[in-house]
Each structure stands twice: as C-alpha cells, then as structure tokens.
Amino acid sequence: MSSRPDVASRTLEIGLATRTRAGESQTGDAHLIKPVGDGVVGGGGRGGGTLIAVTDGLGHGAEAADAARKAIATLERHAGKSVLTLMQQCHAALIGTRGVVLTLAYLDSVDGSLTWAGVGNVDAVLLYGDGDSPHARATLVTRGGIVGSELPPLRAEVLSFSRGDTLIIATDGIRSGFADALPPASSCQDIADHILEEFDKGSDDALVLVVRPAADMRPVDVS
Predict the structure, then answer these.
(1) Domains of the chain: which residue ranges?
(2) pLDDT for 115-132, tens place per residue?
(3) What is the DSSP string of 167-207?
C-alpha cells in the first residue's frame, strides 16, 4: 500500500510505500521524517534540516512492531542530536527488546549536505542526477549488528545533497537492485510505489522511503 508521511518538509519531496507481511496485523517496519531547528552535523546549530529514519524490528509481528515504535519514539525525543548519538541512545533504549536494524540520515537544508549511518540491513542509496535519469550513485555501507543488542563501532559519512538527487531507503522486505531501472520522470511517490510492487519479497514487512530536495536547497562541497 502507499501512504503519505505524517510530516512533510517544505524543503523536501517525499514518497512512502509500505506493506505488512501476510498474516500479520502489525508491521515491524517504521519511519520518521522530522524537521529539526538546528544543524545536526557537528552540533554546530547551523540552521535547519530534517532527520530521516527507517527501522526494522527483528522478526515480525507485535514484538517487532514494539521495538520499532520504541526506536522511533526515542528518535522523536532526541532528534536534535547527531546521527551517531541517536544510534547510541536508541541502543540504550532498546536493551531488553528484540532490537532493530536502523538507518539514519540528516538532510541539512541550509548547506545541502546529507549525513548518514546505518546498522543492519536497511539499505540506502543516493542517486545523483537531474531526477529523470540519475547518472551515478552512492550506497550506504551499513555495519553488521543489532541496535539494542550488538551495536558495532560506527562512522557517519557526509555527502552533498542537492536539487535532482534522490535518496531511497528500503527495509529488507525489499529485494536488492531496487534502485536500478527506475521509471523516468517519476515523482518520489511513484518511485516508492514502483519499488514496492516490483521488489517486494512477499515474505516480510516492507517499507520504501524516497526523498528528493526541493529547489531551494543549496549544494555544498564536503570533500
């Protein structure tokens, strides 16, 4: 099914598509899109941006859903912190639960940077291009582990994120290769719907989140 995010940023175009595993009444996949008032990277308070999170509770059903909701609630409370600090706070909050895998991205709408980090198999791809025919990509290298049980050493990566670039984050209910051969000239919602329909494994909860900056974001050199 497709559903619009609860929070829409004035600086972002957003698409979301989700599906609950057959036979389950609750999904263990969850997301957060939260505008924050100060720049997160380095804690320097450089302006405004948006925290993006996609999490997948281990397994499926009610216990997986509970872990995912607890992760999202923790991120809501501490959204102004750096992505690495947020990972650590989620880890502490989830001890005793099934745990989750989690990918975080902070999009700085002032300088046009993206900072991301991930634990476990929530995949993220950044497509560079004009939005119609992206010509290159960056893939998030996540670390193996479980937030709430086995948190590995983490390192955040900072990239540029400017008009025409597209960020796609998908849980492991989506097959690999989801960022290949996307329909041309598509909105974020169309891309999310396409990926869910074409790449859903059918054996797990599935979630696809697609984000593209609006025209007023400025690129930044992060080399």
Answers:
(1) 12-213
(2) 999 999 999 999 998 544
(3) EEEE-TTB-TTTTSSPPTT--HHHHHHHHHHHHB-SSS-EE
Write the pLDDT tens digit of every residue in 63-80.
999 999 999 999 999 998
The mean pLDDT of the chain is 86
- Fold for domain 12-213? Phosphatase 2c; domain 1 (3.60.40)
Q: How far is residue 57's CA from residue 27's CA, in Å, rounded to a whole number?
A: 9
Cβ atoms 52, 114 nearer than 8 A: no
> Residue 80 corresponds to which amino acid?
G
Rounded distance, CA 137 to CA 221, Å?
A: 17
Which of 168, 51, 141, 53 is CA-nearest to residue 100? 53
Residue 128 C-beta-side C-alpha neighbours within 13 Å? 10
Query: What distance in Å separates the CA atoms of residue 31 and residue 70, rounded to the nearest whole number?
Result: 12
